[in-house]
Amino acid sequence: MAAEKMALAKAINESLRSALEADPKVLVMGEDVGKLGGVFRVTDGLQKDFGESRVIDTPLAESGIVGTAIGLALRGYRPVVEIQFDGFVFPAYDQIVTQLAKMHARSLGKVKLPVVVRIPYGGGIGAVEHHSESPEALFAHVSGLKVVSPSNASDAYWMMQQAIQSDDPVIFFEPKRRYWDKAEVNTEAIPGPLHKARVVREGTDLTLAAYGPMVKLCQEVADAAAEEGKSLEVLDLRSVSPLDFDSIQTSVEKTRRLVVVHEAPVFFGSGAEIAARITERCFYHLEAPVLRVGGYHAPYPPARLEEEYLPGLDRVLDAVDRALAY
Amino acid sequence: MTVESTAPRKPRRSAGTKSTAGKRTTARKSPHAEPELVQLLTPEGERVENAEYDKYVAGITPEELRGLYRDMVLTRRFDAEATSLQRQGELGLWASLLGQEAAQIGSGRALRDDDYVFPTYREHGVAWCRGVDPTNLLGMFRGVNNGGWDPNGNNFHLYTIVIGSQTLHATGYAMGIAKDGADSAVIAYFGDGASSQGDVAESFTFSAVYNAPVVFFCQNNQWAISEPTEKQTRVPLYQRAQGFGFPGVRVDGNDVLASLAVTKWALERARSGEGPTLVEAYTYRMGAHTTSDDPTRYRGDEERLAWEAKDPILRLRRYLEASNHADEGFFAELEAESEALGRRVREAVRAMPDPDHFAMFENVYADGHALVDEERAQFAAYQASFADVEGA
Lengths: 326, 392
Ligand SMILES: Cc1ncc(C[n+]2csc(CCOP(=O)(O)OP(=O)(O)O)c2C)c(N)n1
Fold this sequence. Notes:
The structure holds two protein chains of two kinds.
Chain A: E1 3-7, H1 8-22, E2 26-30, H2 46-50, E3 55-57, H3 62-74, E4 78-82, H4 93-100, H5 103-106, E5 116-121, H6 136-140, E6 146-148, H7 153-165, E7 170-175, E8 182-186, E9 198-201, E10 206-210, H8 213-227, E11 232-236, E12 239-241, H9 245-255, E13 258-265, H10 270-282, E14 291-295, H11 306-309, H12 313-324
Parallel strand pairs in A: 2-3, 2-4, 4-5, 5-7, 6-7, 10-11, 10-13, 13-14
Antiparallel strand pairs in A: 1-8, 6-12, 9-11
Helix pairs in contact in A: 1-7, 3-4, 8-12, 9-10
Chain B: H1 62-87, H2 101-109, E1 116-118, H3 124-130, H4 139-142, H5 151-154, H6 165-180, E2 186-191, H7 198-209, E3 214-220, E4 223-224, E5 227-228, H8 240-244, E6 248-252, H9 256-271, E7 277-282, H10 301-308, H11 312-322, H12 328-351, H13 370-391
Parallel strand pairs in B: 1-2, 2-3, 3-7, 6-7
Antiparallel strand pairs in B: 4-5
Helix pairs in contact in B: 1-2, 1-3, 1-11, 1-12, 2-3, 2-9, 6-7
C-alpha cells in the first residue's frame, strides 16, 4: 500500500497497525478498544490481529489508563491510550499534568515517557454533554506535553506515526467530526516535522489560522471569500504545542491580517496566545488587530444549540470582514 | 435460597460450588458464575422463602404487588417509546433500561420521599418512582438541555454522564444528612463498569470513614459498553465492600421483590446510623448500551436468550397470576394505560421546542459575569445583523 484514499479514522487505524507491526513495544490501550474497535472504530480489527496483550481493553478508569501507561513506558513500552471522549479525560488529568508531563524534567532527563494520549474531540456530531468539548488549551498550558491535532487523513496517519516515535508525551486530539472525511494517504511519503504548520491555501489579503476540525471550515470560508474577490491564505497549524509561530509570522507579513479560528472557548484559548505573540512579532506589519473566532465562555451547549456555539462559515466570514475593514 | 453478604450479623450459607480446577490457561474466576444472590421470586414466578429478607416485604399487599408490576410495565413502555423516537430521529441518543426494570423499581420503591437519589444516565425507572415526569428525562437526549429538571423537586438529582462522579456527591450529601441529625438516606446508582473508577473507590472510603447514610446501588448489567464485568473485577463486586469496612450483598436484580427487600434493609441500616452498604443488583442490559452501540460486535445471542428467560416483568406476572393477585381486567387496563403513556411521550417529544439561542448564556454563573454579558451582547448584535439583511 502506498497511496490510497481513506477516511481519517481509518488512517489512524492504519497508522496504529503499522506501529504495532514495526515495534513490539507499542501497545494500544483503552475502554472498548478491543472487540468493539472503539466507539468510533478507530482501533477496529487491531485486537484480532495483535492479540489482547498488545491491544488492551482496560477497566473503566481514565486515571488508571494513563497512570499504568506511565508505568509501562517506564518499563520500555510505548503505549497509545484512547480516552473515549474529550469530556472524560479529566479523571486522568491529574496523571497527565502532575506525572506524565513532568517526569522527564523531574528525572533530569533520565526518564522518557513516550506515551500518546488519543482524544476524540470537538463538536458538530449532535452528542450529549461531555462529548463535544475542545480542551486543548488546558493541555497546551502544561509544559512537558506536546499537543497536536491533525485535520485530514494524511496528517492523521503521519502525525500518529510521529507521535508514537516521539520520546515525549503527546496529547493527540482527533477531530471526531472529520473522522469520516476521506483523503489520499501516502504511507511511503516522507512527512514534515510534527510541529510544522502548513499553508493549505495561498492568499494575499488575510491569513486564517486553524487546526483540527476548523481547517476544513477555513478552506470553505476562503472559497466563499474568493467569490467576493477576497484572497485568503489558510494555515493548518497542526500542532498547538509547540506552535509554529514562524510560519504564522511569514504568512502574516505577507497578508497583514490574521484571524484565528478554533472551537474551544476564546477566553484564555490558543487564539489568545497566537494573537499576543503575533502582535509582538508583527506589530508593524499588521493592518488590523488579530481577531479570534471560537466558543463562548459558556458550557458547551446541548446539541440543538451547537450550531450557534460553534464557529461556522458566517461567523468566520464576519470576522474576515471586520479585519478587512480596518 | 442462599445469601452471601459481608454483613457481620448474617449467617453464611452455602459458599457455592464453582470450581476453577482444571482451567489453568487464564485461570479466570468469572464473577458471572458466582451463584449466591438474594432471590425471593424465581424466574418461574415462585415465591421462595428467605430468612433474612422476607421481613422487608412481609406485609406487602396484592395491590402493592400490582403496583410494582405496573411500574415495571410502564417504565418498559416508556423506554421502548424513547428507543423508537430515537430511531425516528426525534432523539439524538437513548440509553435503554430494558431488562433492568426490577432492579430500578424495586430499589426505587424502597425509598422514602425524603431520601435523595443520585442516578447515572439510565435510571428511568427510578425517576418514575420519584414522580419525575418521564418526558423530562428526554430533553438531554433530544439535545435541548443538559438535564432539565429541578433535582430538589423530587429529590432526584440530575443524570450524570461522567462515570462514577455522582457516588462522591451522594456520599457528601449523606455526610450532610448525618451532620444535620436527620434520618433520611441517600442512594447512588452506578454500573459495574463504573466500579473501576477512582471516584467510586473514594466514595467507598469517605462513606466508610464518616459512616455516611448512603446505599451504593450497583446495577451489574454484565456489560460496560463492550467490556464484560471480568474486565473490571476478579471478585464479585459486592465483595468489594468488605475491604472498605461495610457490608455488601448481591441481589437478583431481575427480581423486583428481592430488590425491594434488600434495598429496604440497606436503607434501614443507613437510617439507624450503621453507615453505608453496597448492593450489587445482578441483572442484564438486554438492549444495546445506547442507540449508537452495536452489541453484535461483542456478544452473542445465546446470552441474551438465557437472560430473557429471567425477564423481570414476566416473572412477577407469573407470580401475580398463580397467586390470583391480578385478573385479566388488570392486565388489559394496564395495556391501555401503557399505550396512552406511549402516546403522551411521543406527543410531548414532538412538541418540545428547540431552546432559545440565548439559552447558552443563561445560568453560566449564579452571580453574573462581565465576559458572558459581553459575549451575549456580541451574539445579539451578530444575530441582529442577519435580520437587517433579511429585512432589506
Ligand atoms: C469517565 C467516563 N469515561 C468513559 C465514559 C464513556 N462511557 C459511557 S457509559 C460507559 C460504560 C458504562 O458502563 P457501566 O458503568 O457498567 O454502566 P452501564 O452503562 O452498563 O449501565 C462508558 C465507557 C464516560 N461516560 N465517563
